Amino acid sequence: MTSNAPASPPACHPPKASRLNPGGDRQASHALWRIVFTRLGSHPATRAYIERRAKEGKSKAEIIRCLKRYAARQACPHLRPDAG
Length: 84
What we know:
It is a single chain. This protein has 84 residues and is mostly helical. It contains 3 helices and no strands. Helix 1 crosses helix 2 (44-55) and helix 1 (26-42) packs across helix 3 (60-79). The model has no long low-confidence stretch (mean pLDDT 79).
């Protein structure tokens, strides 16, 4: 007889963070990637953010994920058509 409890992930494979939108627009995702990596090289506030988050123990991938979300929140209002 089996139980109805969900299977727990094995200890050797911890769960990974989910992607922002795995079925989303690849061109938009690449544009966000380009924005983030351009800022990494030329934007002092972004560099300071990366240093601060790295001191908190975040991995580079986690920091980049956060920066992509921030860039998406900044860009999205400029890309949506007007409601009127």
